[in-house]
Design goal:
Elements: H1 3-14, H2 24-27, E1 28-35, E2 40-41, H3 44-57, E3 59-71, E4 74-85, E5 88-100, E6 106-112, H4 115-118, H5 126-136
Pfam families: SnoaL_2 (PF12680)
InterPro entries: NTF2-like_dom_sf (IPR032710), SnoaL-like (IPR037401)
Protein name: SnoaL-like protein
């Protein structure tokens, strides 16, 4: 993975729309591993479906890449994921560990973010319970 390819990939993430989603074929190998706190896939079409669902379920979702670290055939991206649910703006902070094949396409994508802190604590009801449990710890 060269610097230009990584720059193109991060620009695609930041400008991702339902119309640009089909470009995933440029950036992800057909056989690729994806894992985040809620999903685990092994094919590009599943990742594409996940992104498509994101646009259907959330309002104005977008990624802001804050930092990139490239090393050999891999990279780490530090990002903010901004979106709204029922008009309420939210941000999830996380990072992605990426590995690339010889053609520079993603074959491994692992997202790391704290679902409890970044999501559940911000929800009405359950958020209060989680914050109270943290105080007891």
């Amino acid at each position: 993975m060269n610097a230009d390819s990584l720059t193109a990939l991060t620009a695609w993430y930041e400008r991702l729309t339902p119309d640009s989603l089909s470009a995933i074929r440029t950036f992800y190998a057909e056989s690729c591993y994806f894992k985040d706190p809620f999903n685990e896939f092994d094919r590009r079409e599943q990742v594409e479906t996940l992104f498509a669902d994101m646009f259907r379920k959330l309002q104005e979702p977008r990624f802001v890449i804050r930092e990139t670290v490239r090393q050999d055939q891999g990279a780490f991206l530090v990002w903010d994921f901004d979106f709204a649910v029922r008009g309420r703006a939210m941000t999830i902070k996380g990072c992605s560990h990426l590995k690339f094949d010889g053609q520079g396409r993603v074959v491994y994508h692992r997202d790391y973010w704290d679902a409890a802190e970044e999501l559940y604590e911000k929800l009405p009801g359950i958020g209060f319970l989680i914050r109270q449990l943290k105080k007891l710890a």
